[in-house]
Amino acid sequence: MELVFISAAFISGYALMRCHLPPLVGFLIAGFVLHAMGYQSTPVISQLADLGVTLLLFTIGLKLDVKTLLAKEIWFGATAHNVLTTAFFTLALMGLKALSIPMLSGMSVSEMLLLGFALSFSSTVFAIKALQEKGELNATYGTLAIGMLIMQDIFAVIFLTATSGKTPELTALLLFGLPLLKPLLGKLLDKAGHGEMLVLYAVFLALVAGAGLFEAVGIKPDLGALILGMLLASHPRASEMAKSLFNMKELFLVCFFLNIGLSEQPTWQSFSFALILMLLLPIKGVLYYWIVNGFRYRVRTALFTTLTLFNFSEFGLIVGGLAYKTGLMPGPILVSIAIAVSLSFAFSAPLNTFSNQLYGWASRWLPERAPDKLHPSDQQINLGDASILVLGMGRIGSGAYDELATTHHQPIVGIDTREDSVTRHQQEGRRVILGDATDPDFWSRAVSDGNISLILLAMPHSHANTLALEQIRQTQFSGKVAAIAKYQDELDQLKALGVDEAFNIYQEAGSGFARHVRDRFSHPDS
Fold first, then answer.
1. What does pTM read for this prediction?
2. Which of 151, 216, 391, 491 is most buried as measured by Cβ atoms within 10 A of its Cβ?
3. Residue 365 and residue 525: Cα distance in Å, rounded?
4. Angle of helix 221-231 relative to helix 140-163, nearest 10 degrees?
5. What is the pLDDT of residues 212-265, one digit of tens each?
6. Phi-psi domain of 386 (left: phi exceeds 0; alpha: psi -120 through 50; beta: other)
């Protein structure tokens, strides 16, 4: 049976990908179609789905800077949105009940409050996928969205722990000693190598030391995976560990989305109520925009944060399932939540795909603050006397920067979206500033005293390089542009957009290695 599920997921996911929609929407559709054909989820699919979510939270922890959560716009923004959205949905449901909506006829105010709380959350899984596919996980709005989602995950874990009926064991107090193990965990990571032992160590930390340990003392397992990841977030190899889990995590998350579609049988009544919930979703988005914009972020940042979080969450299904088991929520309502979550994913996916076009339209109507009134992380960018720009200061961008600084002797400025990366490069003597080169406003906000003649697109995700190139071409830039890519189709796309030079990083690495060997051994005395 699992072979049928895998085949259906591949066909549906591939079809949606060709339609320029995230494959996860196809996985959801495949689940609903399979359920309509009489298929049910299996223990294997359910377990793999749970593993996918656990590994996802672990990798989120690996990338989480705790200082981010301490920012007022994160902890206060997430809390304010949760309270306001829960209140709105509760009042809306009470109004719908007064209008004699059959699905709500038997629900009490406390039950509607619980449903409103479930609907107030946004999907961590969807947001991470959308940001990864756009290559903007570290963009300003991406950091805001992930920070608010982490706060929501914390709210969720607290709620589930309090209502699970399980009292944490007295031994749970020992978990406060976990930070003492951080040096040991870091040393083991240093010795884990770069192959299968690195992957195995990551799985051990997420599922055994994290989820297994927390479950053993009566606390929700996913919280353990998140915290273990956070303990290693500051380690130099944390990013490498997260990347080593990427394919495994993605495969398991396919099962997660399939499982949602396979969970319940939709009815016309439950589908109708799900559509009503979808009509209420825009208010949730308006509250996101109002809160983020209130912290003096630009229109684009507030709008993109809103679009990333503009959905219902799979957590709504978890809350609904718990309420259903305890008799606090009827079965048809649970089905409606499942449908609403899926519909919100299908609705939100194209909005995120065409977010730049939406911003171009909305920016004409939404008022922007004066540059000096904006949040410090969203203000103008001073490029100084730069003649060469390097966009993306990862390993490739840093290497290109150093080589050009040695050979060309022209002013060079690097641009990176990660604040910690910018700080590190500045400490090492490079001129690097914080900025998002995929931002349509980036070039209009940039102030330059020099004549920029060369731009290098060195961001790790080809989609991000493509977006940046599109923005560069719109500025009528007359200099040269060079870009990197991993695959031939990405090279072809960059060349079609008019890049002057496009390089395959794998091929260039091989050529560079051959040149190094030739130069090293070309002399008899070597």
1. 0.69
2. 391
3. 71
4. 140
5. 888 888 777 877 888 888 888 888 888 888 888 888 888 888 888 788 778 666
6. beta
